[in-house]
Design goal:
Residues 13-309 form the Luciferase-like domain. Keywords: Monooxygenase, Oxidoreductase. With 352 residues, the chain is α/β, with parallel strands linked by helices. Helices cover 44% and strands 16% of the residues. It contains 11 helices and 12 strands. The radius of gyration is 19 Å and the shape is globular.
């Protein structure tokens, strides 16, 4: 685990991720400027760092209603504004990027942040960027597999010799600069299906599993499949960290949390995905055995501890800001995480 910056002795890590969405507040219809949204994301990361959280990550989405298309640039600003918190992408769409350029960018931010950088590589759930960046969507799977493999090779070898189908070959190529510790933790993003998770297991890389909600039992099967595949390929699953990520909102009561958050999720998904989030399905987010973490601080503590018991994962990453959530509500949630939720999770999951 140490290879990936994880110390199991400290217990379950708690992080935050943002997709960098730029949506109006559904209650007021007002949308802040792009510049203000970007500055608030940097401040959001700074608050998370000051509250003692373990991880903060930024995603890229190349369509209307998002502002972090240049997510490595945003992470560079965050690296300068924070001191301790580990940083990452969530995710970097490696299919439509040059792995050499990605590695150069993230190794540079790693040096600026004194060794706090990680890459989570994904395939894109919104596929408009294929046309925008000049790639053929029909090569969706092949592009990811080839470029992810090259990214891993660059991470392991300072001088690279490589050839593939979608990029010119590399011959005795030095990819510089190198990160502080010689390599970066590189995770593979999966969407929650066992088939996707098994590919991460076969590759012997850490798995970042994002989800929109559902019974914990379903996602446990996905994680079990990942570990089985790793074992079949000769890797030790005990050395491969797992992270889960999904919707989070804490309020005084579960009813208040649902009322606060549902309009943001529903209206935000209508604009970015073309359809809203079913209200009954979202209401199940307060169920003790649902993977979504919506409720009072005590309810969320119990839900996360239950998930940790079932998954045996090393990092939980909350998405709090989707759908034009007002900044003061983000501040309140960070305060609740730092003062109530995180201390309890560490108390019960750290090794004595």
């Amino acid at each position: 685990m140490q290879k990936y910056g994880i110390n199991p002795e400290k217990g379950l890590e708690f992080g935050i991720y943002t997709l960098g969405d730029h949506l109006p507040d559904p209650h007021t219809g007002e949308r802040i400027s792009e510049g203000q949204r970007l500055r608030e994301i940097v401040e959001y990361a700074k608050l998370a760092d000051e509250a003692g959280l373990d991880f903060f990550s930024v995603g890229e989405s190349h369509q209307e209603f998002f502002v972090t298309q240049a997510h490595a640039v945003v992470l560079s600003a965050i690296a300068q504004a924070t001191k301790q918190i580990r940083l990452g992408s969530s995710s970097t769409i490696i299919s439509t990027s040059d792995p050499v350029r990605v590695y150069e960018n993230f190794a540079t931010v790693d040096l600026l942040s004194e060794g706090r950088m990680e890459i989570i590589a994904g395939r894109a759930s919104r596929v408009g960027l294929f046309d925008l960046l000049g790639y053929d969507i029909r090569n969706y799977e092949e592009l990811f597999e080839e470029k992810f493999e090259l990214l891993l090779k660059i991470n392991e070898e300072e001088v690279v010799n490589w050839s593939g189908e979608f990029r010119p070959p590399l011959r005795n190529a030095k990819v510089l600069p190198r990160p502080v510790n010689g390599s970066l933790p590189i995770w593979r993003a999966v969407g929650g299906t066992p088939a996707s998770a098994r590919k991460a297991g076969y590759a012997g890389v850490p798995m970042f599993m994002a989800h929109l909600g559902g019974p914990v039992s379903i996602f446990k099967r996905t994680i079990d499949s990942y570990r089985d595949a790793a074992r079949e390929s000769g890797f030790d699953p005990a050395e491969l960290p797992v992270a889960t990520a999904g919707f989070f909102h804490a309020a005084e009561t579960s009813q208040q949390a649902l009322r606060d958050m549902y309009p943001h999720i529903n209206e935000g998904m209508k604009r970015t995905n073309g359809q809203g989030f079913p209200k009954q399905q979202f209401a199940q987010g307060v169920d003790p055995h649902n993977v979504m973490n919506i409720g009072s601080p005590q309810q969320i503590i119990e839900k996360i501890l239950y998930q940790h018991e079932e998954f045996g994962h090393q990092r939980y990453i909350a998405q709090i800001d989707f759908g034009g959530v007002p900044y003061d509500r983000l501040v309140k949630n960070i305060e609740l995480i730092g003062t109530e939720i995180l201390p309890a999770i560490r108390k019960y999951t750290a090794k004595k």
